[in-house]
Write a structure and sequence with these properties.
By secondary structure, the protein is an alpha+beta fold. Helix content is about 60%, strand content about 5%. Keywords: DNA-binding, Membrane, Transmembrane, Transmembrane helix.
């Protein structure tokens, strides 16, 4: 088909001006991806081989099959297509791809042809149909994976605090380690549940970095604020007093945003990149105590200091960093450890689950 304009579903492909629109609203595509779509749409129903893609789109530039796979995945995202139930681009395993939607050279009545390209105004974004199908099964699996990752981080952190506490008490060491580990796992899983329920939606919608951070921060704020409110009220009710402060909504916002940003860095293909999450985790773990906030270790110390009968004392933690008691350096070191474990644990588990679900649902991966 050699016409300048090709129409399919609610899309118009303008080959002269290299523009794809949906109901008159431009759809963002890079140069090579536009060329690949034009090649497919220009030969509806015909098999377009991998070799033809490489020859006409990449023009002989040496690339791997992964580059073509990523190109087709990007086109499907732009079109709102699903690899498992395709409406536009069908995979022919081992050979190439086929465009299966009806294509015409005249505008169907269902397409609103605009006289000129229209920018992404707020009303246009609100009226445009969603480009990604929301999969609730994936949502819950992804959130659950993040909670498991938070639990694993809690086990490691709990063992650290447990062995530190065991050296200070006259009680059975194994019981102290078990109790401290259980407490840390409980709080880690609660925190990761709040963050992951918000972040999973952003990952499903393939939001940008700001969307990932906002979703994680919102979940962290809700769960952190709730735990702090209920915790302080519970202490006031039972003991008649409460710690001056424990970890809460503000810390939840920061940690949730950190997890969201760390997750955004894992979106590329190839090995899961955890070093950005690790650096972010260490950074905020140092910054929160330095600015007067508290993470889990600082909160446990605050509670212990309020209760004269408590056998948990901060002296041994401080001794590890050369301080007398749980001072600012101790708070920053323990905060960096906690945040590193939590952010990396949640990001690793969610990214691994997302990759596995992608491989199972995307036939391109089996070529």
């Amino acid at each position: 088909m050699d016409a300048a304009y090709l129409y399919f579903d609610t899309f118009r492909l303008d080959r002269e001006n290299r523009l794809l629109t949906r109901n008159g609203v431009p759809v963002d595509l890079s140069g090579r991806y536009f060329d690949a779509l034009a090649l497919l749409v220009g030969a509806p129903g015909a098999l377009v081989s991998k070799e033809r893609f490489l020859e006409e789109v990449w023009r002989g530039v040496p690339v791997t099959d992964e580059a073509l796979t990523q190109c087709v995945k990007a086109l499907r995202r732009a079109l709102g297509d699903d690899a498992t139930r395709p409406r536009f681009i069908e995979t022919v395993p081992k050979y190439g791809y086929r465009f299966i939607a009806e294509v015409s050279e005249g505008a169907p009545e269902s397409i609103q042809v605009a006289p000129a390209p229209v920018g992404f105004s707020g009303s246009a974004l609100l009226e445009a149909p969603p480009l990604y199908r929301f999969d609730w099964a994936r949502y819950w699996l992804l959130a659950g994976a993040g909670v498991v990752g938070g639990g694993v981080a809690g086990v490691i952190g709990g063992l650290f605090y447990g062995f530190v506490a065991a050296g200070q008490t006259a009680q059975n060491d194994s019981a102290v380690v078990l109790v401290m580990t259980a407490l840390t796992v409980l709080f880690s899983m609660l925190g990761s549940a709040g963050i992951c329920l918000g972040l999973s939606a952003a990952v499903q919608r393939r939001a940008n970095w700001a969307g990932h951070m906002a979703a994680g921060a919102m979940g962290g704020m809700i769960i952190g604020g709730s735990v702090k409110l209920l915790g302080l009220d519970a202490f006031s009710l039972i003991y008649g007093s409460s710690p001056v402060t424990i970890t809460g909504g503000i810390e939840g916002v920061v940690i949730g945003a950190a997890v969201g940003l760390g997750m955004w860095f894992t979106r590329r293909s190839g090995p899961i990149r955890l070093w950005p999450a690790a650096l972010i985790g260490i950074g905020i773990g140092v910054a929160i105590p330095a600015l007067g906030g508290r993470l889990l270790g600082g909160s446990l110390i605050a509670v212990a200091q309020m209760l004269p009968q408590s056998q948990l004392r901060p002296d041994q933690i401080g001794a590890l960093v050369g301080e007398n008691g749980f001072g600012p350096v101790s708070a920053m070191v323990s905060g960096a450890l906690e945040s590193l474990l939590f952010v990396v644990g949640v990001v690793w588990a969610m990214a691994l689950a997302w990759r596995q679900m992608d491989r199972r649902s995307d036939p391109d991966r089996s070529e």
